[in-house]
Amino acid sequence: MKNKIIITTNYKIGTSKFGMYEIENYTKACNENNIELEVVDPAKMNLFDMDTPDLPLGAISIAGYPYYHHYVFLDMLEKLNVCSINRVNDVMIADDKMLSYIKLKSANIKTPKTICFNIGASWLTNDIVKQVEEKISFPCVAKLTDTGFGWGIVKFNTPSDLEDHLGLWLHITNQNHTGISPHQIIFQEFIPEANKNTIRTVYLNGETLGAAMTLNDINWKVNLRVEGAYRTPYVLDNELDTLTKKVCKLFNLNFCGIDFYLTNDGYSVAELNCASFHKGFELANPHISISKKVISYLLNEIGLPR
Asked: What is the reported pTM?
């Protein structure tokens, strides 16, 4: 194995602003420990020269959303005993919004009210609208189970809004006239004031590193890619610390960013981010360097001096 750590990403390296802050800071942390850092996109690389396979010591993911090549590559590294920050099977469950909600609910951890449909046959349109109205109510939001950054998240104020959009989705997905679509969509209750009460915690190796509140003064979405979104300091209380640790233990995660809604009934889990970006959190918590802590953790797991 080579004295090297790999970062996997699915962004256009060097051309996208997403992930560049993290790559720069991971590079600095590796340089401080005399470790080489290589950034790769598994979908666009010759994985290894089979004559002289160049295995890294460790792997970190900053992929923004799950995709096949990414999982396959990390799974291959894991089977070759390369140290990863999280195990692939655990990440696949945490990354899937529906699977993660089911797992959270089974552990009696609060989440927004959620239902899921396979969007396919057009005859289901009225049934979907009826079930959403009965079980979720309006307004509500719809999300694909495997997206990030707020992409593909749509708010519906009325049943007629949803019915119109379902007609469009079904027309697009049914071009093969089979009535079958691979797309799963979750419908979720809309959380009022979420743009003023969403909190991100970051967890690493049994410790909650801190918390930050995510705000948006001009949009109901709080994803940091959305115009107007920003993070401010938030004091990590005992309840939030305990809940963060409970969630990460449930999913068997060593590293994760968790978004919570602060409601009248306490904290509710919004989603898990196994490839959590650092910039917004660190701007709100300038005393915390996530990249340094992650590299230190990996080197300790590998058994190298720090």
From this structure: 0.88
